[in-house]
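Chapter review: from sequence to fold.
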Amino acid sequence: MFLRDDPEYGLAGIRGPRGLRVPSSASPPSPRVPLRTAATSIDWVPDLGAQIGSLDWWRGVATCTALCVATWALAPGIEPLVGAVPPPLAGAEWDEARAQGITAIGQGAATGRRMAANDLVAPLTEAPERPTVTLSATLGEGDRLDRVLMRAGVGRADANAAATMVAQAVPLDSIAAGTRIALTLGRRPDRTVARPLEALDLRARFDLGLALMRTAGGLAMHRKPIAIDATPLRIQGLVGSSLYRSMRAAGVPAKAVESYIKALATRLSIGRDVGAADRFDLIIERQRAATGETQIGALLFAGIDQGRRKVQLVRFGPDGAERERDGAGASRTDGWFDANGQTERRAVSGLPVSGRITSTFGLRVHPLLRFTRMHKGLDIGAPYGTPIYAMTDGVVAFAGRTGGYGNFVKLTHGGGMASGYGHMSRIAVSSGTRVRQGQVIGYVGSTGLSTGPHLHWEVWKNGAAINPRAVSFAGVAQLSGASLRAFKTKVATLLAVRPGG
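The C-alpha cell string follows.
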C-alpha cells in the first residue's frame, strides 16, 4: 500500500510491491543493461506446475532436461564386484570343517564340536537304553497298587511283590487316593521284558512313609515313621454381623462351621438367641507332620459365650469316638454332651414322614366302614415310596402284615412307650432288630384298609393309645461311671488348649 502524493513514489520509477516496476512519465529512458546482469535476473527454475505452456515454463523444462543430461554424462560406470571363491575342501579338511559346523549341535553335541565318522566307526543296530529310569505314578480313586505299578512299566512279578510287602505295613485300601509313588526302574536284558523295580517310595499313611529297595536277595522294605503333633486347633472370635462369615474369616474350615452350627442348634436358636456381641469358641482335630503337612479332622468342642450364659458342648461317645448315623438321607452327628456329661436327643422332625396330616387323633367317621369310631393315630398323606423314619431309638417288636393296618411296623422305645406305622408299601426292617433315630423303617403305601397312599402313625403309653402330637420325642442321656470319668478328662484336656496353638 502506498500514497499517490508521496514524493518518493510520485517522482521516480521504482520496483514496488511484488517486484513490479512502476514506470514514471517523468523518468528518463533506462540505460542498456549488460547481458550477465540480465541473465542473473532471469528465473531459470520456475514452478513447472504453474503457467504451463508459457515462455517461463518452457525455459524451466529446458533447464531440467539439461541438468538430467549432465548428471547422466558425468555419472561413473557400474561394474560388477568380483568376489574370491574359496577352493573346495576335501579329505581331512572337509571332515574337520563339518565337525565344527552347527550340525553337530543339532545332533546333540554338548560343545558344538563333534568328530566326524571314519572307517573305524560301525553303525549301531539299535539305540542303547538308559541304565535306569526315574518316574512317578499316582494312585487313583478305587485303584489298586499293583495295577498302578504295572501301568508305570513294572513287571507283574515285581508289582505283586511290592504290593504284598506294602500290605504288610498298612492295608492297601487305607492308602489315600492321590498318593504319589516315586519309582526307579533298572536295566533290562532286552526290550522284550519289563524293567525290574529298583526302588519305590510312597507316603502310605500320614505318619508313615515306605521305601522299597532292591538288594542281592530281592526287594527289601524300609519303614520311615513321620513324627506327628496331634495338638488340636482352637479358634475363638466375635460373632459380629454373621456367625458363618466371622468363623470363615477366622480360618475355620467350612465343614467345621457346619458341624458347629448343627451342634449349637440342639441347645439354642442360631438366628434368635445368638447376638453380635457373643463370642464363639471351637476346637478341631489337627495333625501336623514333621514334613510340614497339616491334616484337619472333625469338630471336638463347640462353645459360645453370651456373657449371661455359656454353652459348652463336647463330642463324645461310649467309646470316646464320634458316632455318625444316617437320617432322612443325610449324615447326622450323635454324641454332643455339655460340660456336665448330659445330652439331649431330639427327634428328626415333627412327623415320621414328609407330608401333610389328612386325619387327626380322635373320633371320626371311618372313610370305608362309614360309622363313627375312635381314630387312634394320625394319618399323614404322602406320595408312594416316600421314606418313613423312626422318631427315636427303639427295637422292632413286629414287622409284617396285620389286618386293616396292612404292612405294619411296631417299635418299642422303653419307659412304656411304643409307636406303630401302618399301610406301608414296603418294610425296611425286620423283627428283633434295633433301629436308631432317623433310620428308614419303611415306605409309604396304601396296603390294608386305605383309600390312598398315606402313613397311619400311632403312639402308645403303657399300652394305651395317645395323641402322637402330644408326645415329645426328646430324651436326656446322662453319662455315669467310667464313661463320665473319661468324659471329664477329655473336657479338661480340650479346655487346656490355647487358642491358635
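Two observations follow directly from the output. The CA atoms of residues 92 and 116 lie 10 Å apart. The first strand starts at residue 14 and ends at 15.
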